[in-house]
Write a structure and sequence with these properties.
Elements: H1 13-23, H2 46-59, H3 64-67, H4 79-85, E1 100-103, E2 106-110, E3 115-120, E4 125-128, H5 134-148, E5 155-159, H6 165-168, H7 171-178, E6 182-185, H8 186-191, H9 198-203, E7 216-218, E8 223-226, E9 229-235, E10 244-252, E11 255-261, H10 271-290, E12 296-297, H11 306-312, H12 324-347
Bound molecules: zinc ion (ZN).
Zinc ion binds near residues 162, 164, 239 and 265.
Length: about 350
């Protein structure tokens, strides 16, 4: 059974521990992450159920797909299980989806399970994440750019949100071909040799992973100004030790709008990392509130509902990814409750 110490953070240990003592009787302690024997829904503890219910209340009917989906779902919200269960994750030749303009100057190119965003600043392109390998760059990213009229020679920076294969694998090839600097946090440059995602990709018969050589380090609070864009970097550990999130300006119908890119995605299983993510989320949430963020995106777009919103559209024809400050509050609130639910599960050794 997982144990916790008070110094592990600001989540309510006492509350969770009290509840977990009851559940020990019915839930097998120490259920390994790699086992598919997740307990059934009726075994969910009162503490977990309360947080899931709270997430559902924040979600209302409009956001129910988030509170009832991956984030708060039991078992599926730990990283290895996410890798195994999200469609296309372990399919080396998963096809690209139709690339699309999320905003006037921000484009999504990739597959369903993950992808890249490209910000056209007017004075060059900033690429967020790099797909998994040279083949995906050649077969998905570059054709997608051609379809959208973007010239890879205009790539100026590659921002890698975190040190998992699906985000950095194509970086060495892009560096070799286009010479663009690779930006990552110090903690995640250090983390690359320990990347826990690598064995899953190896076992799924992906081509051998080539890791980028250490390049530029991004510090928390750094701002990248290029052309008409401004990108603020926020280091948000939890998913990895140095997950990089950003707050950026984009254009929508010619108007500047502020959106946030959450780099964290799937929830970790261990208490220490869950606590880190919880702290990171609140910091990012506050910064987003201060900056009046009106949209939330991710290079795993399904995690924050980007595909759902895009497909749903809006009655007035406005951009469905502009969810307003209220929408940002609600998604952050759902994430918060789902982290707490997962924390309660982890305290019981149920991941
Ligand atoms: Zn990851």
């Amino acid at each position: 059974m997982a144990s916790a110490t008070p110094e592990e953070g600001n989540l309510s240990m006492k509350h969770f521990r009290r509840c977990s003592m009851v559940l020990v009787l019915v839930v097998m302690p120490g259920a390994a992450l790699s086992q598919a024997s997740a307990p059934t829904a009726q075994e969910e503890s009162p503490a977990v159920a309360a947080h899931v219910r709270q997430a559902q209340e924040i979600a209302g009917s409009e956001w129910r797909f988030l509170s009832d989906g991956f984030l708060c779902g039991r078992a599926e919200n730990t990283i290895p299980l996410a890798i195994r269960t999200i469609p296309g994750f372990l399919v080396p030749d998963a096809p690209g989806i139709e690339p699309f303009a999320a905003f006037d100057n921000l484009y999504y190119i990739g597959m369903y399970a993950w992808g890249t965003f490209i910000l056209d600043t007017g004075e060059g392109l900033i690429l967020f994440d790099a797909l998994t390998n040279e083949r995906q760059v050649k077969e998905i990213l570059l054709p997608g750019m051609a379809e959208l009229g973007l010239d890879p020679e205009d790539l100026k920076y590659l921002v890698v949100t975190h040190g998992h294969v699906d985000h950095y694998g194509g970086a060495p090839y892009l560096k070799q071909e286009y010479g663009l600097p690779i930006l990552m946090s110090e903690a995640d440059w250090d983390y690359l040799p320990h990347d826990i995602s690598m064995p899953y990709f190896v076992r799924a018969n992906y081509p051998p992973v080539i890791q980028p050589e250490r390049d530029q380090v991004v510090q928390d609070g750094d701002v990248l100004n290029l052309g008409n864009a401004s990108v603020t970097f926020v280091i948000t550990p939890g998913h990895t030790p140095g997950t990089l999130s950003t707050i950026l300006t984009v254009k929508d119908r010619g108007e500047p709008r502020t959106v946030a890119m959450w780099g964290g995605q799937a929830l970790p299983g261990a208490l220490k990392e869950l606590n880190q993510m919880h702290g990171s989320l609140h910091r990012f949430w506050n910064l987003g509130r201060e900056r009046r963020v009106e949209g939330l995106i991710s290079t795993h777009p399904w995690v924050v509902g980007n595909f759902e919103l895009h497909a749903r559209g809006t009655d007035d024809g406005s951009n469905p990814l502009l969810i307003g400050q209220d929408g940002f509050e609600r998604v952050m609130g759902i994430y918060d409750e789902c982290i707490k639910a997962q924390f309660a599960r982890s305290l019981m050794g149920v991941q």
